[in-house]
Every structure is written in structure tokens, then in C-alpha cells.
Specification:
The structure is a homodimer of 186-residue chains. Helix content of chain A is 39%, strand content 17%. The first copy, chain A, has a 5-stranded parallel beta sheet with strand order 2-1-3-4-5, sandwiched between helices. The relative contact order of chain A is 0.18. The first copy, chain A, is α/β, with parallel strands linked by helices and 186 residues long. Chain A is globular, with a radius of gyration of 16 Å. In chain A, helix 1 packs across helix 7. The interface between A and B is medium-sized, with 29 and 29 residues.
């Protein structure tokens, strides 16, 4: 199987249900995957650019796992991209470190899927809000195979019932299974 | 004139031409504007959320000034949004602190305007990459009046000639003039 690297962009995984479940599932089903949790690695945003670049260089398939915050990736993950994807390394005429690698993204939203439509409250699809993510992969000469998405993943302590929580966990596990299915097919 | 607050999201203004020129012009022509330079205020991303919220509360018109990095706002500014725009303050049923304020954005890109079209190398317009910015304003119950944009603002030391640099400065000053014209009309 291809070397699989997961970059987790959730800013607070300890208080996450969806992202934590997806990562735990990937870890359980695909123990050879490298999972880099940016919130644990860089609580002060002091990125080790060389270590991150080395991890990316080793991988065949790179997955960005994150919740959509304010219609885009969390600041933590955006800062990682700004810092790690250096000109002359990730992009530009001499920047070929990621060339030919496969890129995947897996996005969760708190609002339901129905909100992310032309007629829904958000007015646009998650794909439309993520034009930049696909372009980002392309600029790094990666092949953006798929953007996975599940909505309605809001879990509020004291409000969300156990039954609802179980449903969210099932949904997150399904997303993880789809990611791993895709990985096997590559 | 309305109280004008500018949030500068450029991560390194000392090495900026376009963003620095726009901010300097605004400062010169509209000295009563408050300009908050996030890169100077928060080099360690240690945002003073209360101070930022207080600045926002005082303003009638809020401008986000930033270069487009990786098809969206720089991580510095995204992190500011994630941290400062708290639920129950900026959004949600009880979050009305920004309600009714006017929101503007002013975006610069290094690549030329022609790149940001359906048939250009970026494949989408800056407006399309910025769907989330307009939505962000709407979720905070602000009125997103306009997103200003200029492209081709790349300035490479030792490559960009003085004449080209002067042209970029003129273009940036024109953008500042348009922003101030808009401000007067509000």
C-alpha cells in the first residue's frame, strides 16, 4: 500500500468528536499511516518546517483532515500551509518536492449538509468554498483526487444526546472507511 | 465620517510593497482611521482577544486588508478570525457585537488579474475564492459592501525595476483612493 500521511488541522482534538473519530479509525485500520496532529505538535504555532517537509516528502498520499471553520481551513492548518509550502520546494519552477503525490482532503462541518447548497443558508457548496484547496494541490503539482465531506457534525456537551452522539460517531467512521477504501484503490 | 478600522493581515509588512502602500495611504489621507497591523501586534500569534473585540466594537466600518496567500487570507488573519470572532459575541443568536457594521475587504495578489478568471491559470475569480469572506461578514450580521482587488503586485528585490515598482505603488495608491472614496460615500 502507498505511504499515507495525514495532516490533522483541528485546533483542539481533545474536544473533537468527528475529527477525532476519523483519525482514530484511520489509525486503527491503517496503523502504518503517519498521522501528524498539528494542535499537539504546535500549540504555539512554532512549526518545524524541515520536519514537516520531510514527512511530506516521504508520503505517496497526503490527506488534510480538518473541520471547516469560517468557510475554510482552521487558522492552524492555514498557517502550516503558509509556512511549510515554501517557494522553490513546494511550488515554483524549482519546487517539485510534492510533484506527482496524491492529495486528499476530508472536511467536516457543524452545520448540516443541506446548509451548504446554492439555496441553503451558506449559499455555496463545500466544494465551492474549497476551490482554493484543489488549486493549492495543483500549484504543488499534486493530484487532488477527492475532497471527502460530512456535515451536521456539531456535538454540544449537555445538549447532544448519547443517541445523537452515536449517530455522529457512525457517520465519522463511515467517512474514515471511505477514505481508506479510496486509499486502497490508488 | 464613520469610525474606520483597518485590520492588516499581511504577515510581514516590512517586506510588503502593495499592502504597505495601501495602509500608508489610508493613514495619510484618513488619519483618524485606526489601523491594526496584526504582524506587529502579534508576532507570536498571541492575540489579545478582548482588545481586538473592543476595537471592532468601536468601529462603524471594518476593512480587512490582506494579500491572497494560497487562495485565501494569510494564516495570521485566519487565526485572528478564529480566535476573535467568538460565538455569542460575533455570531449566534446572542452574538450581535458586529451587527449592522459595514465590512470591506481589500485583497492583493502577486499573480496578474488575468490569472484569476475562469480561463486563467487559477481557474476562478478572486471573488469566487472569497465566497467565505462575504459569508463570514454575513454570519456576523455585517453588511459586506465591497471586496476591492488588485493583481500583479509581485515585487521581487533585484528583479523588479524601479519603473515597475513605481507602477505598483501607483496601483496600490489607486486602490487606497477607491477605498477612501467608498468610505466617504457610506
Amino acid at each position: 500500500m502507498k505511504k499515507f500521511l495525514v495532516i490533522s488541522g483541528h485546533p483542539d482534538l481533545k474536544n473533537s468528536l468527528a475529527n477525532k473519530t476519523i483519525l482514530d479509525e484511520i489509525s486503527a485500520q491503517c496503523p502504518q499511516a503517519e498521522i501528524r496532529k498539528l494542535d499537539e505538535l504546535y500549540p504555539d504555532y512554532n512549526f518545524d518546517v524541515k520536519a514537516e517537509q520531510a514527512a511530506l516528502e516521504k508520503a505517496d498520499v497526503i490527506l488534510f483532515q480538518y473541520p471547516m471553520h469560517w468557510y475554510s481551513m482552521p487558522g492552524l492548518l492555514k498557517l502550516y500551509v503558509d509556512k511549510v509550502m515554501e517557494h522553490g520546494w513546494a511550488y515554483g519552477s524549482q519546487g517539485n518536492a510534492l510533484k506527482g503525490k496524491i492529495f486528499l482532503a476530508s472536511i467536516t462541518t457543524g452545520a448540516p449538509e443541506s446548509a451548504y447548497t446554492a439555496t441553503g443558508v451558506m449559499g455555496h457548496t463545500v466544494e465551492e468554498f474549497s476551490f482554493g484547496v484543489a488549486n493549492y494541490a495543483a500549484l504543488c503539482k499534486m493530484d487532488c483526487k477527492k475532497i471527502f465531506y460530512i456535515g451536521g457534525m456539531m456535538c454540544v456537551p449537555g445538549v447532544t444526546t448519547d443517541e445523537q452522539k452515536n449517530q455522529l460517531v457512525d457517520k465519522a467512521k463511515k467517512q474514515a472507511a471511505e477514505i481508506l477504501e479510496c486509499l486502497k484503490s490508488l
